[in-house]
Design brief:
Blueprint: H1 12-15, E1 28-29, H2 33-36, E2 44-50, E3 52-56, E4 59-62, E5 65-71, E6 78-79, H3 84-87, H4 90-106, E7 115-117, H5 119-140, H6 148-157, E8 164-170, E9 178-188, E10 198-208, E11 211-218, E12 233-237, E13 243-245, H7 253-261, E14 273-275, E15 281-283, E16 301-303, E17 306-317
Parallel strand pairs: 4-14, 5-15
Antiparallel strand pairs: 1-6, 2-5, 2-17, 3-4, 7-13, 8-11, 8-12, 9-10, 9-17, 10-11, 16-17
Helix pairs in contact: 4-5
Length: 318
């Protein structure tokens, strides 16, 4: 799979907050260069976007299915939403400490091919994964799921913020440097489905060098949590003890796609009409992030003393 990216002009007021992720401008690679060293990938970038959303009390509609293609491999794609201070500071230091840990996971050198990460090492890997997933979200959409306070947390604490979970699996398949980005919006069950009072959820699955990394970030509490089989996935955050690696079974390309697109922790709304877009995938000359799609699901999602239901969102495969 490929990936696409494009720059966005920073708002003048955001440019002053140089230590907040995506405030100001730099020229950061979407995939770290050390990560792709020695690998071969396709000489083009392909982005596929699908979605559907609630359009009335009695109706859901499928959004246009779009394909965007760009020349150049995924390893040449760049983003410009990371400020130079962050890119050359805490983010660079994070890359440096995460690299040997990730290399240990994709090519274990311990006896019998097994290793382990202690709690601090797992936290470093999870912080790197969170930062990278948030960057990947910006390559597919201008919207940002994590709040400003959440985005400051990895910089200040070198840890993922609250309402963030990270899993890693061993991957066997054809995909290399492929990404699924799923974004959903949840509304309170007492509100109308079109209300502006919402929770936002990011699901980002990144597959590279025999690993699949899943990051989920919610911008607040209330949306149902998810469980992944321990036979395939190792939870890296939050954790309370050492992480044994690798898990007994690897995930396939189909497993990765299912995690990104078939959310068992949600259910479809009970509406009588579903309007399909029967044109199939359409090639789009626009930048991927300029395209808007919507994915809607509705559920009795319980968190603390509130219940939330998913209303709108988007899935992007790059």
């Amino acid at each position: 799979m490929g990936a696409s990216s494009s720059g966005v002009q920073a708002r003048p007021e955001a440019a002053q907050a140089v230590l907040v992720l995506w405030a100001g401008r730099s020229d950061e690679h979407a995939w770290p260069q050390w990560l792709g060293r020695g690998t071969e990938v396709e000489p083009k970038q392909v982005t596929r976007m699908i979605g559907y959303g609630r359009t009335s009390d009695q109706e859901m509609s499928e959004a246009p299915n779009l394909i965007v293609e760009k020349k150049g491999s995924v390893l040449t794609a760049r983003i410009r939403e990371v400020c130079r201070t962050c890119n050359n500071g805490w983010m660079s230091r994070l890359e440096t400490v995460a690299q040997p840990l990730l290399e240990r996971l994709w090519a274990p050198t311990y006896a019998f091919g097994r290793t382990a990460l202690d709690v601090d090492e797992a936290a470093l890997v999870a912080t790197w994964a969170t930062k990278t997933a948030w960057e990947r979200e910006r390559t597919s959409d201008q919207a940002v799921t994590a709040t400003e306070e959440m985005r400051r947390h990895p910089m200040d604490q070198q840890l993922p913020p609250e309402f963030t979970s990270v899993w890693i699996a061993r991957h066997q398949g054809r995909t290399n440097f492929g990404v699924f980005v799923a974004r959903v919006e949840a509304t309170h069950q007492d509100d109308h489905w079109s209300t502006d009072r919402r929770r936002h959820v990011l699901m980002c699955v990144m597959t590279f060098r025999g690993l699949s990394v899943l990051v989920r970030t919610d911008d607040g509490w209330g949306v149902a949590q998810m469980e992944l089989p321990e036979s395939h996935w190792r939870k890296m955050w939050p954790v309370s003890g050492p992480i044994r690696w690798p898990p007994p079974m690897a995930v396939s390309d189909e497993d990765v796609q299912a995690v990104a697109m078939r959310h068992s922790w949600l259910r479809h709304p009970d509406v009588p009409i579903f309007v399909r877009d029967r044109r199939g995938f359409q090639r789009c000359p626009l930048r991927a992030r300029a395209v808007r799609g919507r994915l809607a699901r509705e559920s009795g999602l319980t968190g603390r003393d509130h219940s939330w239901r998913v209303s709108n969102g988007l899935i992007t495969e790059v």
